[in-house]
TrEMBL record:
Taxonomy of the source species: Bacteria, Bacillati, Actinomycetota, Actinomycetes, Kitasatosporales
Name by which UniProt lists this protein: TauD/TfdA family dioxygenase
Gene3D superfamilies xrefs: Clavaminate synthase-like
Composition-biased stretches (Polar residues): 1-16
Keyword Transmembrane included in the entry's annotation: no
UniProt region (Disordered), positions on chain: 1-24
SUPFAM superfamilies noted in UniProt: Clavaminate synthase-like
Organism: Streptomyces thermoviolaceus subsp. thermoviolaceus
Keyword Iron found: yes
Keywords in alphabetical order: Dioxygenase, Iron, Oxidoreductase
Length: 263
């Protein structure tokens, strides 16, 4: 795979955007960090299958760059359909004793997923270098590239009825940059046209086009399987991830966070 700088500048040529993360035993932090920087993803092995372990893994892998951890989540699915390619993000603030507390952030820049219980059949993971996907649009679909880089949307407008989601629209573009030049490539099913946007029909058509293009990638992507205790670490600005349908029960822990690179 071609490497990309932390600013997201494209390589001179692109290969398939599919990502198969290298596997690194716990305790080899420098190697894990280098692979995460190179590929946008790495699988950590040898950690205990506990909630504490995923926090320790985040600290070992990201070190002093850590700025904020959000509450870890446990997700169990049974005889479930696929989870399509996405980047983790949500805008969730709750009130605890009269004090607002942020539980999720639209710009979480890393995500860790620990396999608690693998599915007995199916449930394999897949991932994409979203920088490679977006750069490839210059040749394959420049109109979609223009939309992703140049059109504001309400990033969570489709989820406006969810309790806890702020009433104020979160306006942004699918492809943006932090103030230090790091590229963000978003992928969420929550995006919607802005209220009374005169180009609403065009925006809806382009969102559908984006949706179809991303789903069209999935069948040909390489798969990888997380064993019990394995922790997938992703650069959430750069890599989208998903999983196949499965039978039986599958459980994961998810920890999203922000590092110094998110600002």
């Amino acid at each position: 795979m071609h490497s990309l700088s932390h600013t997201g500048r494209p390589p001179t040529s692109l290969t398939s955007p599919g990502v198969v993360p290298a596997r690194v035993p716990g305790g080899r932090e420098q190697e894990a960090r280098a692979l995460l920087a190179r590929d946008g993803a790495v699988v950590l092995t040898g950690y205990e299958n506990t909630a504490d372990a995923i926090v320790v893994a985040a600290a070992h892998t990201l070190g002093s760059r850590l700025r904020r951890l959000y509450p870890h989540r446990v997700r169990t699915s049974r005889d479930a359909g696929p989870v399509h390619l996405h980047a983790d993000s949500f805008d969730l603030v709750v009130d605890i004793g009269g004090v607002p507390e942020r539980r999720r952030d639209p710009d979480e820049d890393h995500v860790l997923i620990q396999c608690v219980r693998p599915a007995p059949c199916g449930g394999d993971s897949f991932a994409v270098d979203a920088y490679g996907f977006v750069d490839g649009l210059a040749a394959t679909d420049p109109a979609l590239l223009d939309f992703l880089t140049g059109t504001d949307v309400d990033l969570y407008g489709e989820w406006a009825g969810l309790r806890g989601l702020p009433a104020t629209p979160r306006v942004g573009r699918h492809v943006e940059y932090t103030r230090t030049g790091r590229r963000i490539v978003r992928r969420t099913d929550g995006a919607a046209p802005l209220h009374r946007d005169p180009d609403t029909e065009h925006v809806r058509a382009m969102l559908a086009r984006f949706h179809e293009a991303v789903h069209g990638l999935e069948p040909s992507l390489p798969r990888f399987r997380l064993a019990e205790g394995d922790i997938l670490v992703l650069d959430n600005y750069r890599c989208w991830h998903g999983r196949d349908a499965h039978s039986g029960e599958r459980t994961v822990r998810i920890l999203t966070l922000r590092t110094a690179d998110a600002y």
